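Q: Structure tokens for this one, please.
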Amino acid sequence: MKGLYRRNGNGWFLSSAQLLFPVPAAIIEIERLAGCGNAGQSKRARHRKVQGGENMSRKLTEQIPSESRLVDAALKENLKTIFERLERPLCLKAVLEPDQRECTEMGAFLKAVAELSPMLELQLLEKGEDPQADRELDTAHLPVTGLYQEGEYLGAAFCGVPGGKEINSFVSAILNAAGPKKEYDEKILKKLGKLKKKNVIRVCVSLSCHHCQSVVTAGQTLALLSPNVECIMIDARLYPDLVEQYKLSRVPAVLIGEALYMGEKDMEELLALLR
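A: Here is the predicted structure, written as tokens:
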């Protein structure tokens, strides 16, 4: 299947053909995540999963299917193993437009993922239904999904369906937000502590790009560590206005404010661009 991007030795470039649906999930990396740590040692707290009803608009409840073609039986089993390591409740809050195909696909994807762990709560909302979500999330580019804990936006979000390679960054964000605590380089933590203002990192990706997922994970890890950082994955194929505005020609493309940076970047390289 031809996509919006083609690859050469220097990265992934926009092509004229548009990918109609995300490519299948990247099972290899998911299996690696599933094999990390000891799931039997996770602290699985009792948490009431809330789905449907009060957390979904009636139209969304009726329109969005409970199964997703992006989450097959093999992927479900791998994700169940990974999610055994979750230690804290996490809410996946999505703002959708009921009549958009991508929004329907995002809702189905999230429903299929959220049902795999009692630690995951799902809220599917229409734009205008939750003023807080409308303020905090990029509702100009739907569908958008943000990670929340105890009602607080954690600064990690996804515009578009995180299928294909980006399921790895999606799962990593969930693990980093709600899984076992990790230790990070003290130099990175000190630099984060010196940030004076809010920095929004937008990572424009292709779902078939091998390098994009690591940039998204690096940015969202910074966001989870600092209230002065927000990182949003953006599936560029869905938003031609963004591609045209910034003349995006290849991915990964990193937008920080109005500044554009091309190519793969790790946590330290991204942090060096923040103020």
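A few notes: Residues 1-28, 34-54 have pLDDT under 50 and may be disordered. Residues 191 and 271 are 8 Å apart (CA to CA).
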